């Protein structure tokens, strides 16, 4: 089967690169060594491990530590700073494989896409100070604080402010849905340094800061955990005169919104890959089950009413996979990729959710049993219809910025 681009599991895996303005696809998978290495690590953390972690609502500390030790969480850090120096495409393969093996990359994916903001816009002194320690596992950069309770996706309306005073910035305000704060040493923070009323464009006047969470805890930063339907550590943050050293400003003051776009495009492409991994997990799981499950004297997978929803979900996963590779290839060649990254996330999130529903439906009552892992993965993949951005807002973005339709809000 090697000649048809398959890897021995369900799915036609393609890789992509940008040549000029063309996307070049190849049916053969050039990432087999990378995939095999990630799978070998994941074998040490079988379904029982994630089932137990989910039941106890714990953070998968051992799993994240193993990923760090293997160098996978330093994938995007250049070799000169002690990292692996991999591309976004390769990083996406890592996260895809984690989810396809039954794990949940949501516990650690932040370190990958948050890294892009520091890599592309941080000063050389910041990179030298932090990247080698992050690569070595001495520090974690898992968290980014952008969203606020009253602003939501309208980032220009954030009200958290950072006022420069005596060589430092003093921060006051509130953030919500800030993930992995309790398991990170560093956090990227977006705050207004110029009031909205004083800027020409509403996306101006926001700045990015690197926050040392260990120093900030109890000294101007209060963290309130938010219980939720999945085992995902997320929080509400309260800033009360938190002081941040001036040298922790990332890039130029007032350009923070533009800077985070690089990180957000990487985030969407990487999470698309996670959804694709989920989608393949669901189709692999349900395909095996319906072949073996016999009712009324025949496998239920013999019925077209069972076959078609699974096949349809699989087709959509494959299509989403191609858009994921396109978005990553554009990002890696430092070309504009906002539309492609958003489309990849939309297609992948919807495909994985369709596969999840088919998997749940055809497992019947067993789909609700924790020991089958379907209900856990079902909950986990549902998140990506809403976060990191609502699929409805992706459609609005495409309508306005790609199709040139009037802004709808």
Summed up:
The protein has 3 domains: 2-136, Acyl-CoA dehydrogenase/oxidase, N-terminal domain (Butyryl-Coa Dehydrogenase, subunit A, domain 1); 141-257, Butyryl-CoA Dehydrogenase, subunit A, domain 2 (Beta Barrel), CATH 2.40.110; 260-402, Up-down Bundle (Butyryl-CoA Dehydrogenase, subunit A, domain 3).
What gap, in angstroms, lies between the N and C termini? Answer: 50 Å
The CATH superfamily of the largest domain is identified as Butyryl-CoA Dehydrogenase, subunit A, domain 3
CATH topology of the largest domain: Butyryl-CoA Dehydrogenase, subunit A, domain 3
Please state the second-level CATH architecture of the largest domain.
Answer: Up-down Bundle
Continuous helix count: 12
Q: Any key phrases for this structure?
A:
alpha+beta; disordered N terminus; 409 residues; single chain; globular; 12 helices; Butyryl-CoA Dehydrogenase, subunit A, domain 2; 12 strands; Butyryl-CoA Dehydrogenase, subunit A, domain 3; Butyryl-Coa Dehydrogenase, subunit A, domain 1; four-stranded mixed β-sheet
């Amino acid at each position: 089967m090697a000649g048809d681009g398959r890897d021995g599991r369900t799915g036609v895996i393609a890789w992509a690169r940008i040549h000029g303005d063309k996307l070049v696809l190849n049916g053969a998978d050039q990432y087999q060594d990378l995939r095999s290495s990630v799978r070998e690590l994941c074998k040490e953390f079988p379904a029982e491990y994630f089932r137990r972690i989910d039941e106890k609502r714990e953070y998968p500390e051992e799993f994240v530590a193993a990923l760090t030790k293997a160098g996978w969480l330093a994938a995007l850090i250049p070799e000169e700073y002690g990292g692996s120096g991999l591309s976004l495409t390769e990083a996406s393969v890592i996260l895809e494989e984690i989810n396809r093996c039954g794990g949940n990359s949501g516990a650690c994916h932040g370190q990958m896409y948050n890294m892009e903001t520091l890599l592309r816009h941080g000063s050389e002194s910041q990179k030298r100070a932090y990247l080698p320690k992050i690569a070595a596992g001495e520090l974690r950069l898992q968290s980014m604080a952008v969203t606020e309770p009253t602003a939501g996706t309208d980032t220009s309306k954030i009200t958290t402010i950072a006022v420069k005073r005596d060589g430092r910035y003093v921060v006051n305000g509130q953030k919500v849905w800030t993930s992995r704060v309790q398991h990170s040493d560093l956090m990227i923070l977006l705050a207004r340094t110029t009031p909205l009323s004083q800027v020409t464009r509403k996306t101006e006047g926001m700045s990015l800061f690197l926050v040392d969470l260990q120093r900030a805890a109890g000294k101007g930063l209060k963290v309130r955990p938010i219980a939720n339907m999945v085992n995902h550590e997320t929080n509400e943050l309260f800033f009360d005169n938190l002081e941040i050293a001036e040298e922790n400003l990332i890039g130029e003051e007032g350009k923070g919104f533009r800077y985070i776009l690089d990180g957000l495009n990487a985030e969407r492409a990487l999470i698309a890959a996670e959804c694709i991994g989920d989608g393949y997990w669901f189709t692999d799981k349900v395909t095996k089950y319906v072949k073996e499950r016999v009712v009324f004297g025949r496998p239920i997978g013999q019925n077209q009413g069972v076959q078609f929803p699974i096949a349809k979900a699989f087709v959509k996963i494959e299509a989403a996979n191609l858009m994921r590779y396109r978005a990553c290839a554009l990002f890696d060649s430092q070309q504009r990729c906002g539309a492609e990254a958003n489309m990849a996330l939309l297609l992948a999130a919807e495909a994985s959710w369709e596969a999840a529903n088919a998997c749940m439906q055809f497992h019947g009552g067993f789909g609700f049993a924790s020991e089958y892992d379907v209900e856990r993965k079902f909950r986990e993949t549902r998140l990506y219809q809403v976060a990191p951005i609502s699929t409805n807002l992706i459609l609005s973005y495409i309508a306005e910025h790609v199709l040139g339709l009037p802004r709808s809000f």
